[in-house]
Amino acid sequence: MEKILEGLVSSSYPLSVKRMIVKRVVESAESPLSGPQCQAMFALSSRLILQGPDQFQRQVGRQVLEAYARHHRDDFEAFFTRDLVLALLHGGGGGGGPASLLFLTAPSPSPPPPPPGLGSNLDPSVLDYVQTGLRLLISCPAVLELFALLQREALRLVSERPPAPLCARLCQLLSDFPQCLPRGRKLALAFCQQLVRSIAHFQTQSTREAALRLYVSQVTQVSNLLRGIWKAEPDTLLPSLQELFAIISSTDTSEPSVALASLVQHIPLQMITVLIGSLTTDPNVKDASMTQALCRMIDWLSWPLAQHVETWVIALLKGLAAVQKFTILIDVTLLKIELVFNRLWFPLVRPGALAVLSHMLLSFQHSPEAFHLIVPHVVKLVISVKSNGLPTSTAFLEQLSELMHCMMYHYSGFPELYEPILEAIKELSKPNEEKIKIILNQSAWTSQSSSLQSCLSRFSGKSETGKTGLINLGNTCYMNSVIQALFMATDFRRHVLSLNLNGCNSLMRKLQHLFAFLAHTQRDAYAPRLFFEASRPPWFTSRSQQDCSEYLRFLLDRLHEEERTLKVLSSSKLPEEMNEGSLVQEVANKSQMLIKQSCSVKEERTLIEKMFRGKLQTSICCLNCKSTSHKEEAFTDLSLAFCPPVFFKNVSPPTVEHSSDEKDDSMEQVSARALSPVTEMPSGVVTVGDSCEMVTNDGTLKDAPSDSNSETVSDPFICKTEAGDNLKKHISEVTPSVTDLLNYFLAPEVLKGDNKYFCEKCASLQNAEKIMQIVEEPEYLILTLLRFSYDPKCHIRRKILDNVSLPLVLELPVNRTLSSLSTLSGIWSMSVEFSDTGENLAKKLKPSGAEEVSCPQLIPYVLSSVVVHSGISSESGHYYSYARNVANSGSSLGSFDQSQTLALAYPQSNLTAATEKDLDENEVSKEWFLFNDSRVTFTSFQSVQKITSRFPKDTAYVLVYKKQNSAGTISAKSASGLWINGDPPLQKELMDAITKDNKLYLQEQELSARTQALEASAASCSFRPNGFDDNDPPGSCGPTGGGGGGGFSTVGRLVF
């Protein structure tokens, strides 16, 4: 029968005839046959299966073998022996040649031993044949011996690195017959590790889709077997993953297959934290190995159908950031960012690639280098995705657009690069600025929490708030609080950053440098050493306490004078051979000419004038001849004195006049201090009003402890107050507001008695009425509350601890009508000079016979920042500031209507500062920041309002209000779309400096983390119970920064 079958399959008969005869042969299997006949049929069918030249012969062999084995099971059991399977696995099959199967032609039960080491060249058809034999013998006892053999042979085969088709066929056999899997923990572990190594050697050279699909299915078959083993033997999972990491972290020349990506989807996600944590903190893993492993994991993004690859890649990136291995992150990002971007062209792997790309770009915030590598390719990708019309294209483009907007916001200043991208994505939605900030803050490397215990206290810095603190250089909190308030003045900051100051070593250049670092540094806190040395007033002793208001005036005046001088120099071509003396004389002459011209011709204003200058007009009307004189002067800030209690009660004029005639029973004050440009006080400030001792609203007087080291004051505010019943009954129970202080500042004043006005028309001293009006409002209104009064008895400056309600929105009365009389304008350093010399008494009373003044235009302002002084005297304490971003649009007014607005009625008003209940809830919940030297935290407007009620020694000192509904040049430029985040582009020199410092900072952090890891492994860190410095309370001004300044005694601490 076997001879007939062998001749038939090789004959030239028609296929239909062959099939009919084969059917007869198969049916004859039911008839009894002798043992040799069965052996011959088994040998022939086996040769057809293993060596058949075409599919028909292999199919015939399989049908005949199965038919005869079912009906002659004992004979097949005697044929399909352990020795036969071993011979096949070691050298038999179609790949071994005809000689290797000569033993199948005879019924000899003992075939010759095959040559070893041919497993990797084994034809997959041998495994098909073996699997068929196992299935036919599954109920026979002899199959157990075959299972034991295959357990050893399976481990041997995978150790010889079989190619993907053979390995997949072996895994299919083992999946169908799990009894063939190596048993015991040791053998099972070795099998898993060898199988992982085998996958690493899988390769395919074909680029045809059908071949690639077959290759992917083969790899999937292998990885599915591993998943089954890991579930059945959990102890094999971790060693398998260690073997996987050893392969991808190897630095030898062989490149492991990306097929390893198929294993990632089978690793439980619950193990991410443990595995990544142990991996990134393992001291035995070198940086080069970690870099290699991460790069190869990123290559896995090209593997189709692999799930969670991006999850593990991102987890490893975050883990490295948590232990501050920034060098690895920088190298890998710059090396692989373009490859990841290129994966976006393939829809099958696009979601994972986009997730990794987003994380890599958003976390790489110290330099635009990585982002700019992919910028040239973005437009082509967007156009291509728009044209393909896939269902997922719209969602992908929206995510890509959000990513691009975030990166262009963070690295603004490259319009030539970004304009094509903006044009390409203009039809897609754009995230708002708040969302962009949140995304950037959450993605930065420095925002990843470290798994290592730190021996040093770490402040909440830029990683949480997006803002940078300023390191206290030794009693420099007065400067830090002022700089943060100016930085948060959005329009001023943008103007400063937009200036082209290359090659200039001016103070404005240093301020621009400081602002740029505050905006773009990765550091939690920045040390402004250069700016401090350049901006410190000459009379300020280094490392000593100073007045922040005085520093602010000096800084603004210095910036203004410097810019004006530079304009003079640039407007004239000075000879190069002019010596220093001639140069100084020339500049002086030009400045003098400019001052003279400014009286008649309006000159171009400096930046400080544009932002902070207002004008105040003083009118004095003689009550005898009714003649009026006018004078106009510029101001950068208004110094508001605390009004006497009677001002709140709106006491009638006769009562006040009566008490004012009796000198001993009245509140006396020195007239407003003249602001002549003297050495110790910069010009440009209007200081008008009274200053009281530490009078509280309950009518009592507070004493501050004397200080033997108190400083002297050349132009003191004197306010002698008798604590009699007449005073106590006039103390208002209502907390005064900034509105009240401004009303008092602008209230008409009667000059009489010792303070009479010399009328030129009458040629004698006459009673007069003095009225002050704001005729030009500034962009930023700076208000200083005069909390320090000079005590001539104790020779110290006492502090007024009264709480003042801070209106979120106020309206400033501005009388824009210019006087036709003599007016002094345009001279920045013009002083506010009054006819009195300071010895006379100026008593602010209601106007008795003056004409009623028309109501001026009310200009709305919104609170931008508050500088707080913590302490009970000017000799000790601490400064910190509250601030928020206020743009020049009117949106910050929220939903306030006219009844909710805090107006300043003129000439007098009964309005008081609003409390929180009067404010729109949406406005109150706007984002506020607390800047306390190195520490920057989130806060709320309620905290600003309640600071003094919670901490009596912490009082608002300097307020900055931003004018609303103003259209400045900044808004016009940002509307063009070139300034993505509203801030102007930085000069290349400045951007390079920031990038260099950011890289240095990341290296410092990485070195520190490594040092701490080494110390932690050697010995445990010792912690001090109260932080790094037990002697620095939160409200202090020590090197560790400050908190809120509440409750701690700062009398003995010189902390300015």
From TrEMBL:
GO CC terms of this entry: cytosol; nucleus
Region labeled Disordered — which residues?
A: 1024-1044
Q: Does the keyword Hydrolase apply?
A: yes
The residue ranges of the USP domain are 468-964
Q: Which branch of life, at top level? A: Eukaryota
Q: Name one GO biological process term.
A: protein deubiquitination
| Record-given protein name | Ubiquitin carboxyl-terminal hydrolase 38
Name the species this protein comes from: Notechis scutatus
What gene name is listed for this protein?
USP38
